């Protein structure tokens, strides 16, 4: 049994999707970051950067913070979702951790939630977001999944691309990424993991009306 400390955000969903795909039993322990529950001393004792997700593996008593470390732990625990070529999986997982997450996160901060307040930052992060969409699109024009076979690299990037309505993108520019996104969105484990903790948020497919 794995205790999953999480909230309804892209970083949290990476881990719940992986747990669903791996069919590992887990217990959801919501940490409401809007209510500052991530600063609770008990949570900070094993997640010192005051961020979700974090896990405790009841089998081993191992605790882990940082979603990339958690995903790699789950790969090693099960021997699954490594994409077949571990180094390729690591390349794309690291791209998520170092670029997609931080850059898209700043696009959300400046472009979605504070438009017009810092025009240079807004333009910088939106254009970087679009550049990263292009990098992912080019890769997915060559391979079905990012690391060849389905892996935690796909799982790490999916919930960030699922925030596409906040990125001012034109899906016609990214047909391979759209194909991949629809492929993942169609997986039942992805749908279950995306809804952890349960929320009103749903996965919008490319071209679907943002207000629908
Ligand atoms: N690099 C971290 C980022 C985690 C992260 O940014 N979590 C956000 C929610 S998506 C959070 O807990 N924010 C609360 C805070 O910063 O106080 C990871 O991948 O686990």
How do the helices and strands line up, and which of them pair or pack?
Blueprint: E1 2-6, H1 10-22, E2 26-30, H2 41-44, E3 54-57, E4 62-65, H3 67-78, H4 86-112, H5 119-140, H6 152-161, H7 175-185, H8 188-194
Parallel strand pairs: 1-2
Antiparallel strand pairs: 1-3, 3-4
Helix pairs in contact: 1-3, 1-6, 1-8, 4-5, 4-6, 5-7
The structure holds glutathione.
Residues 9-11, 33, 38, 50-53, 66-68, 101 line the site of glutathione (GSH).
Strand segment count? 4
- H/I helix tally: 8
Are any ligands bound, and if so which? glutathione
CATH class of the largest domain: Mainly Alpha
Q: Which residues form runs of ≥5 with pLDDT under 50?
A: none
Instruction: Tell me the overall shape.
Output: globular
Q: How is the CATH topology of the largest domain named?
A: Glutathione S-transferase Yfyf (Class Pi), Chain A, domain 2
What percentage of the residues does DSSP assign to strands (E)? 5-15%
What is the CA-CA span between the terminal residues?
A: 37 Å
* Largest β sheet strand count, sense and barrel closure: 4 strands, mixed
| Helix coverage percent | 40-55%
Going by CATH, the architecture of the largest domain would be Up-down Bundle
Structure classification: alpha+beta
**Mean pLDDT over the residues:** 97
**Whole-angstrom Rg:** 17 Å
When the domains are counted, the total is: 2
Output the strand order for the largest sheet. 2-1-3-4
Output the helix-strand order: EHEHEEHHHHHH
